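Running log. JK asked me to keep both predictions on one page so they can be read side by side. First protein, sequence followed by its tokens:
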Amino acid sequence: MWVNRAPPDLPPSLVPEGRSFVRRSSMSLQPAFGQSRAAVPTARLRAVLGSLVLVTMVLVPLGASSVAVAAPAGFDWTSQTSAADNAWLSVTYGNGLFVAVAASGTGNRVMTSPDGITWTSRTSPADNGWISVTYGGGLFVAVSYSGAGNRVMTSPDGITWTSRTSPADNDWISVTYGNGLFVAVAASGTGNRVMTSPDGITWTIRTSAADNFWSSVTYGNGLFVAVSGDGIGSRVMTSPDGITWTSRTSPTDNDWSSVTYGGGLFVAVAGYGTGNQVMTSPDGITWTSRASAADNVWNEVTYGGGLFVAVSFSGIGDRVMTSPDGILWTSRTPAADNDWSSVAYGGGLFVAVSFSGTGNRVMTSPPPPPPPPVYPPGAPTGLTAVAGDASASVSWMAPSDSGSYPMSTYQVTSAPGGRSCLVSAPALTCTVSGLTNGTSYTFTVRALNGAGWGSDSAPSNAVTPRATPKPSIVITASRDAADTRVVRVTGTTTGLVGEQVTPWVRFPGQTTFTAGTGVRTVAADGTFEWSRATGKKVHAYFTHGSIKSNTVVIASR
């Protein structure tokens, strides 16, 4: 069984049709015997009023334990000092200003704040039960469920307010703005529970799709959508123009208290239900039940900063829930377990107001931090190119900034021709093949990570590939001018720098060459020298593997 603590004295007109209550004592109000929790009046009324005295309405299962749900780090709510301890029922944001309206207080039923933190009382033109405020077309507009012919007030700046004539003294519960039109919905009236105004001043009654207890209206994607706290399977109505309304099927007959639009989705929350106190629709027509984070009395939902946020006036430590997509919801810890009635987003800040609490009837929260930026690597530096035969070897240094992900690949590209090679990081060298010998080339390098390719490096030094000549050995020989007993051989090689060459000699009377002594290493300039003391005639040549030099003949002395 569900019990209301600190009950409101609801005016009969604000109790949805078919719902009855039995007063058990001065401290309890619960559904009549045999009724379900659905008998609890709509949450959108914020447990209002009787004699304009707001009281706390918290639905708690008798005997049930309550566990506070801690908000994850990075999504904290902070109490702020309200301008007065009024029954704040609605807050909106427009033109750089937060504006809240209340159903209690004497001449001060409006408060404003430029930052959601510092609030100032403003004079309301009438002490009506102001329950909803919106901003549009350069004007703040609030509606009330009480008052005689003056259930609308407007302000161009949120500070100076003017009473406006309402076309009917219905219990106007919610107002929104869209497509150049203000639209308000009511919880009472016969066939006239909608009114519209192009300027917030002159209002016209419109026929509602049904005489439901319309608790909230919003505008999105070219459509006005309203939700209700009663009705059989028809607790949604839509209108493309705010004038002609059509009933829509709701997935459950929950006490739908608030609806908003954001991220391409309509989202509504309810004051009762079992694990299904959210419904969503991509078009306002076809709706799907969603699991709520907790079975609290969810009073209002808004969208901002890529996040849906709903607030409640029941629950212990979990009177806020959030969702990035309207489908998966997470409980959050409020700044205090006040009776949070409304939430708005503006200036990068969520702001909620309450009709209970002492000096702390506002709380604020920044949206979750955005995901870290995703960006590719910087440009590699320090390129060096070395020419080869129809190729070039390019080396570089890694970028100083690897980007938001680890680097995976480097690409080297030639200019001209666009010939390229790929190499996996962390390698810093790659050979570009398929170049044309005799053509001058420069090269650029870029790096790849999970965010894409980074920018190209500055060009490398210019190189010109050349055909690699075949290795060769050419020798000349003579006797030493100072000592004719010494034979000297000078060799010039191609492609054999650092390699060893072997002498082969044949003397008179020999028919074959034999390996001589004194293997030589080719110097960096491709040359080598060899000498031997002999007065005889000598035939000589040098080899390196299969490479053989010319043969020289040195005459005897």
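And the second, directly underneath as requested:
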Amino acid sequence: MSQSDYDEYGCGHCLARRQRQEAAPINVPAALTGAEQSNAANTEAARLIHDATARAARVERDAQDAAERRVRDATAQAARIVADAHTEAQRVSAEAAQDRERARQERAQAVQERVQAVQEQSRVLADARALAEQIVQAALAGNGNVQHVSAASPRASVSIFFHGEIAAATDRFSAASLVGAGGFGKVYMVLPRRLAGLNMLLAVKKLDVDSMQGQAEFLQEVQVLGACRHENVLPLIGFSVDRGVTEEEDGVCLVTSFMKGGSLQDRLMLDEAARRRLNKMPGAPPAGWAPLTWQQRVSVLLDALKGLDYLHTPDPVTHKPKILHRDIKPDNILIDAEGNARLGDLGLARQQRPAAHNVTTMTSIAGTNGFMDEHYQGSGRFDAAADCYSMGISILVTLTGLPAFEPSQGKLDGRCEVEDDDEIVALAETQAQWPREVAIAVHKVGMALVKRNRERRMTVRQARDRLQSLTDEYMPPAPPEHESVERECAICLSAPRYVRFGECGHSALCQGCLDPFMRRPQPVCPVCRSPVTRGGLVESDDVANQNTFVHPLHP
């Protein structure tokens, strides 16, 4: 190291020496004169000033180096953050562009499918109108009677009406005839003998002809209602497919028997709107509608389960496939004047093809909030277990009188998820006066149908059998009827009764509904539920004019 590079202020030895010198008192030799002493003090002071100045310069230099280092680090970190943000922005922009392109392709595909569906449905409707016109012209060329057009098979007939006939019978679809409205159309009431001379109360469901969804519902409901015959499924009496006199009257119409007891939903809730609809029913109680008793509720639920079990059960003899209802709810469980229930509104029903492995995949989710299975909502795959879920919620609504869904409370099955018997009884609606054992049993059936583990859910048939056991145990059979009134078939509600069951003495069926009914695995009388056999049948045109009940012919 050269002399010029030596830093006495940076040397540790020199620093220690200076500290010792600073700490020691300044000893001025006594022999020095006053001038010499002053010069020595000045020299020492200059040295001390020089040391302090060097120390301050060193501290300043260190601080400047640290500041420069921090600035460099901050600048580098900011550059990294900007680069990362730029990269993330590019990634998000690319993903957004991909999402937009995918959405555009999906919209284009949906539009194409919708156009194809419209074209197909328009073609089917055109074929149906052409067929209807041919049938009508043939009937007019024969004897002018177009009330009932029957196939060669013994099935009950389905009528084809002119649209003008239905418009006249409903007073041009007046508000006075309106009794309800649904997602695909409005429902009107037709008094007896106002439509083609039919001596029965009828319901007309008018669908918007310009609604693609309404056309699809019409075609589906015509097929399901027209082909299915069961005492707990609302039968199709007839339909119209031609144009009305005015654009306001345009639309396709379904004609069914009118259920005088209203819907289970209205009978459960009995709010102002429900009472207004129920009070339009012929024969409405003068004192108003009373809440359903527990016996009536169990009977209605049992009928609904029987109807759903019929839809779910394929029939190889008649080639009836397994049918999924897809919109089970109290609004679609209809009650007649005697308290018997039937499943209605089958516009969303779908046939399950054998190759579907018990699953039908839907391109759009349809149903009612609170009654739809979460698995179906998430996957679009509908099966019998999804119908079971809807039926289970309907049972819980009937038991509790609570809505299926409330924004503040969530879905009803969550509120009913209790195991303590006292809590179950507390859930049951008090106005129905549920017996403790019955309320607990009905709750268990409802919860078994809505289990989250879909593979462990109770089947519709198991639920039907459980409620049937409850009915047999807690509800004694009603006394036999003794009236002498002509009554229509208990299944199709249109043809006169032709058959009497010798085992119980009841007449219930027409000739067209007899064969499909007797092909059931274990047929029972629709009136009293007693087992019946083909050997005990009494068939005669005179049955329609006899008492509905006579003493059993084959005890």
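Observation for JK regarding the second prediction: The longest helix spans residues 34-142.
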